[in-house]
Automatic annotation (TrEMBL):
One Gene Ontology MF term: metalloaminopeptidase activity
Organism: Lactobacillus helveticus
Enzyme Commission no: 3.4.11.-
Quaternary structure (record): Monomer.
Site features described as Transition state stabilizer, chain residue numbers: 376
Protein name (Swiss-Prot/TrEMBL): Aminopeptidase
PANTHER family: PROTEASE M1 ZINC METALLOPROTEASE (PTHR11533), PUROMYCIN-SENSITIVE AMINOPEPTIDASE-RELATED (PTHR11533:SF174)
Family: Belongs to the peptidase M1 family.
Top-level taxonomy: Bacteria, Bacillati, Bacillota, Bacilli, Lactobacillales
Amino acid sequence: MAVKRFYKTFHPEHYDLRINVNRKNKTINGTSTITGDVIENPVFINQKFMTIDSVKVDGKNVDFDVIEKDEAIKIKTGVTGKAVIEIAYSAPLTDTMMGIYPSYYELEGKKKQIIGTQFETTFARQAFPCVDEPEAKATFSLALKWDEQDGEVALANMPEVEVDKDGYHHFEETVRMSSYLVAFAFGELQSKTTHTKDGVLIGVYATKAHKPKELDFALDIAKRAIEFYEEFYQTKYPLPQSLQLALPDFSAGAMENWGLVTYREAYLLLDPDNTSLEMKKLVATVITHELAHQWFGDLVTMKWWDNLWLNESFANMMEYLSVDGLEPDWHIWEMFQTSEAASALNRDATDGVQPIQMEINDPADIDSVFDGAIVYAKGSRMLVMVRSLLGDDALRKGLKYYFDHHKFGNATGDDLWDALSTATDLDIGKIMHSWLKQPGYPVVNAFVAEDGHLKLTQKQFFIGEGEDKGRQWQIPLNANFDAPKIMSDKEIDLGNYKVLREEAGHPLRLNVGNNSHFIVEYDKTLLDDILSDVNELDPIDKLQLLQDLRLLAEGKQISYASIVPLLVKFADSKSSLVINALYTTAAKLRQFVEPESNEEKNLKKLYDLLSKDQVARLGWEVKPGESDEDVQIRPYELSASLYAENADSIKAAHQIFTENEDNLEALNADIRPYVLINEVKNFGNAELVDKLIKEYQRTADPSYKVDLRSAVTSTKDLAAIKAIVGDFENADVVKPQDLCDWYRGLLANHYGQQAAWDWIREDWDWLDKTVGGDMEFAKFITVTAGVFHTPERLKEFKEFFEPKINVPLLSREIKMDVKVIESKVNLIEAEKDAVNDAVAKAID
C-alpha cells in the first residue's frame, strides 16, 4: 500500500528557520516558519524525535497531533490556499551521525567537537519540522545560534550576512531546493579559499587537528571541477559559494548539500607530499562526484526516492569523466573498470538483487535501496553505455536541454531519456528500460554452430542458484566483427564464421572496451583464437578476458582450474590494470585452500612465481621519476610477495620498518601498508599492536590511519586480537564510522575471525543501537558474507541473521547474502580438487 505523501497536503514555498543548539546540554530549540499553500486539511508536516511546543497558522494557535509512527505533525489549519505555519519545537542533540550531530576530535590532548548535519535521506525532520520529501522544494532562510566560543565559525548552504543582537548568525536565502540538501556546521575550523574564473568562492574547511597543507589538494580539484562542469553542462553554477567540509564523524563517504558539501576526512584531506596515487585518485573522484551533484541532484532533483539512481548513477559516471578531463595522465577510466564495473558484475549476478529502479512507497524502505553496487556502480555503467552510444557532443546537448527544462525542479529517469533523445536518432528510453527495470545481466554465448555459422545467444547470468525468468536485454554488442549495434533478440546468426574471420583479420571479440553490462562465453574455437593472439590485446581487453572467465567460473559455467595456467601468461605485464585483474583472480583461489595446509603452501608458491620477477624489477623502495604504472603495480606485487612468504621480501620490509621505526608516518605511502603488515604478522606481538593503536589515535592523517588499521587487524597474536575487539566499542579508539572496516579486517584474518564473529553476535544490540538507523548498517552483513565460505560458517550465518529477516533495512541483504555464501560453499565443494591440482601443476 502506498503511504500518503505529505506534499499532497501542503506545498511549502519558503522556510524561516531559527535554530539554537546547545552542545553542553545536548539540546536543539527552534522555530520553523513555513510559508506555502494548504492543499488539503489536515496538513501533515514531518518531525522526528521532537517535542512540539506550539503550532500557529497565520499567527493564531491551532490544534495539532504528533503521530510518532508516521514521523508527523497533523495540523488542522482551518484555511486553504496561502498560509504561514509556525512550529516551535525542541529536540535532542544525538550522536547518531544523522540530523544535527556532534563530531569529535582531539587537539593537543584536548577533546573537542564541531557540529555538522546529515539530512539525506529523511533526517532533516530531526533538525526542523518540514515537508521532508524531494519534491517539496522551497527556499530557506537560516538563523543559527549556539553556545559560541571565541574563534568559532558557522557555515551553511549560503554565505553569512550578519550576526544579530541575540547572537543568531543569519545566512542568505537559498535558491529553491529540497530539504535533504540543507546543511550547516559550526566550530573551530581552519580553511583555505580561492575563486573560480567566474568568481564562485571555493573553500575547504577542516578541524585544526590537520596540517594546513592537507587542504590544498581538495581546493585545487574542487575549483577546477566546478569550472569543468560549468563548461561541460553548459549551465552556470547557480550559487555564490562551494564549500567542502571534512567532518571527523560521518557515516557516508560524502554528501552533496548544495553549497556546503560534507565529507569523511579520509575522502577530502590528504598530505600532498606523501599519499599514494591510488588514494589521490579516490579523493579526487569523491570530490568530483559530489560536485557533479550540484547540478544533477541539487539543481534538478529526483521527484521521489524510486529515482534515486538518477542522482547517483549520473554523478558516479561524471566523477570519472571530469577527473579524466582534469588529470588525463591518471587514466582514471581504468579505475572505473577495476572498481565500478567489477563491483556491479559481482553483485548483479546474485538472484534476488534489486533492479536499478524500483518502487518505494514507505519512507522506511528508502535506505534499503542504497545498494552501492547497483544504484551507483551498475547505474554508472548504464550511463557509460549511453555515453558510448551517443558520443560526448550529443550527451552535452541532451544534458543542456535537461537542465534548461527542469532546473530548480524535479525530474524522473524518463525525463532524462527524453532530453537525451533530442540529440540522437536512438530510442534511449527503450534501450535503458530493459536495463533499469529488471535485475541482473546477460551472458552472451558466442559459438560456431554445426553449420559453420557464428551465432550469439543471450540469457541471464547467475552466480549460484537462480531462477531463469526468460529476461531479455537490449545489448550494445561493441563487436570487432560485422555485427548489429544492438542485440535485442535471444539469438542472432552473424553468418559464415570462416568468411567473417577472414574479412575481420583478427579474432572475434564482443564488448570491446568493456563498457556494456554483460559478459561473454566464447566456445573453444573462439577462445583459442583469442588466446593465440593474447599479447596483441590492450590492457582493458586483458582485464576483460580475466574478468569474464573469473565470473564464468564463479557461475560454474567453466572451471577455475582452466584459468590457473593463464595467470602466469599475464604475470610480467607492465599494466596496473592487468596486474589488478591478475591478483583479483588469484585471490579467488584462496577460498579453495585451508589455512596452513599443503594446498595453501602450493598456492603461496604460485603467488611467488607470479610476483618475484616484478618485485625484483621494481624493488621495495619507490624510485624518483618512476612511471605511474610502476608506482601502481608495486603494491599488488609486494602484497602478493608477502602472502607468498618470500624470505627476501619479509627481510626487506623488516629492515625498512627498523630504519624508520621512530617516524613511521613519513614512510612512503605506496609501501607503508605492506611494511606495517609484514612487521605485525612476522615480527609482531601484543606490544607492537598496542603501540600502533596508540599511533592510530595520535595521527590525524586519514591515509596513515587506514594503513595502521590494515596492519593491526592482521595480527596473529591472540592477546592482541582480544585487545582489538575490546576497542570496537571504545569510540576514543574506533569511531563508529570506521567500525565496519575494523570488523572486516579482523574477520578476514584467519587468526581473528572467531573473535570478530563472536563479537558481532554477542553485541549486536549495541551495534544496532549505535549505527542501526544508518543506511550503511547493512554493510556489516555484506562484509561477513564476503569473507565466509565454509558449510560451518554458512550454518552459523543463517542461524544468526535469518531471525532478523523482517527488519526492512536488512531483509534483502540477508536473503542475498545467504545465497552468496551458499554459492561459494557449493563451488568449493565441486571445484576444490581440480583447482588445487591445477595450482600444483602450475608451480612444477
